[in-house]
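Explain this protein:
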Amino acid sequence: MGRALELWTSSLPRLLEATIAVTIPLSLAAFALALVIAAAVALVRLYAPAPLRALASAYVWVFRGTPLVVQLFIVFFGLPNVGIVLPAFAAAVVTLALNTGAYASEAIRAAILSIPRGQFEAAQTLNLSRRDTFRRVVAPQGLRIALPPLANDFIDLVKGTSLVFAITLVDVFQVGRQIAATTFEPLVLYVEVAAIYLVIVSLLSLAQSQLEKRVSRHVRSS
């Protein structure tokens, strides 16, 4: 027990350093880009001409239907064969964003579709433009509906960053693997890495709960 506690304490600074330097920035950058992709894809699938809708649907189908680790390998190891070379961090951001964007686009699309048609008709009677209708009517209601699944997508993305070691990024999981390989204590190190992810996800879940309360503060309780 004493050996495990000593190893846990000595390895924690390196694991936290990797978390702050790689895992957290990677998660934030990828999710920010994923939200942009998701919103664009959702709007295309709802309002664009048929060829563009088909293209957006194909994107969602591909990225939801293939493993994330395979997508990472294609972007980082495969694209250089066609002249597209990305640094490991950029490749991870792009891949995670595209993967999460496919799932998040479905949440946004479903949220928009769930808004009653009468809301749009009421906006028309008030002579609101399409832009104002989206900004004042669709976006506030859609955000409240889409928030829980989007938060879940963000949590999945954070956990998905544990795969980026496969494309040479030294994230918290890779640091844990390196320490485990030198100390021959895989159980202690992997439990410690899992604890770090658990803390991050717990904080995100708490933030999600507070944000849901904030965006729902004007909703009347039944």
Summary: The domain at 2-215 is CATH 1.10.3720.10 (MetI-like fold). The CA atoms of residues 117 and 123 lie 10 Å apart. Residues 2-47 form the longest helix (46 residues).
